[in-house]
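[SOLVED] Need 3D model of a two-part complex

Original post:
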Amino acid sequence: MSGSGTADAPEPIAADEPAVVLLSGGLDSAVVLAWMRRRGHPVVAISFDYGQRHRFELSCAARLAEIHGVREHRIVPIDLRAFGGSALTDDVEVPKDRELDDASAIPVTYVPARNTVFLSLALALAEARGARHLAIGVNAVDYSGYPDCRPEFIAAFERLANLATRDGVVDAAQGRRHFQLHAPLASLSKAGIVRLGLELGVDFASTTSCYDPTPTGAPCRRCDACRLRAKGFDEAGVEDPALRRD
Amino acid sequence: MSGSGTADAPEPIAADEPAVVLLSGGLDSAVVLAWMRRRGHPVVAISFDYGQRHRFELSCAARLAEIHGVREHRIVPIDLRAFGGSALTDDVEVPKDRELDDASAIPVTYVPARNTVFLSLALALAEARGARHLAIGVNAVDYSGYPDCRPEFIAAFERLANLATRDGVVDAAQGRRHFQLHAPLASLSKAGIVRLGLELGVDFASTTSCYDPTPTGAPCRRCDACRLRAKGFDEAGVEDPALRRD
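Solution:
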């Protein structure tokens, strides 16, 4: 795992090795995409059409992929709705006006094993494309308490990736780590992410965070994701252009 | 991880906790399904329609699910063909008559990150269904050298599963391991798997192993999977009923 644990600006060194970036269309993954592009990586972006009620994010992902000149953008259909178990995919109310510091329980918006499924598919794509780098916008400071956003999860996945794959095994035999999982936002506050995004020129108007937006992407302003985002923009002292959508 | 490292007969104790079993329709997963049912687990079976050229295996999986009285059988479409990189999904010749002890290279039938993707989806289903047990028919004795069949991969996935999920985190806080990944065939020879299957009453005629069968499931008899299977039946001294298909 690299990049996490620091709030450093991205290294200005160009890295010409291709990277797979998980791109949801949200604020965090947009900043990660810009960060990887600034480092110089050619990027293959991967998004998931998983039956999420906030499908508007996929149009944001497509727009961001275009803005940042990705080499390929793949939207993978994977119907997690068929399994059930989450307010993000089922016919269950998205909680509103929840206390953000209520860490007593993982909320009903948790989707079982979501980041494990997404990273596994990103890993399959990375190996098929010869990419050693994977990047994901998880954050464990201003977040909803999902277990698969924590640094220990990211470290365990990187370890698994290098045991699970041909490329991982071949490089391990030479004493090298093949797959590197980048989580550059892991220890940033939401305001820190907004500031990093501004520095990297991210078009926040092309991002969405709301779990329960209108079909045209107007945010509800009351779900966890909206409130964490608002807190970030407030603390960074800038206006959120996504609030202008209606 | 449990069950691996021993060639013991399954415990006769009924376990009433539900389990998710990865069911390809092959010989190994059929034995694992029978083993979990003999232990007493109510089973949710999961199969994958991933663009494999040997799609005949899905009809075997459905038949096995019926024979063994699973509670639910879910066939998940996930198009790994879109990523490419394998003779099992691409328009690349399946190797025939390869030396089985040629461990110098992982063969072209390797599918990038396949078992990681499959186990991730099985984990999502398990958490959504309240199942603590996952079972997979990997084997690292008479096998094709795939990295994601090795015991160290299985152990790393079990560890990840307990970090990645709500149920894993809740139980870890109580000092308990939630998800258990069973790989009962891990250290058996192919002949040992055949013998265990006979003991458990597995209907081998309802299984398939060939990577390149005819549409009606007649095996090619020359790919790695056919030859490993033939070696197993030979050494166990029994006839393979699947050879009667044409």
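Edit: The beta strands of chain B are 19-22, 43-49, 72-77, 133-135, 180-182.
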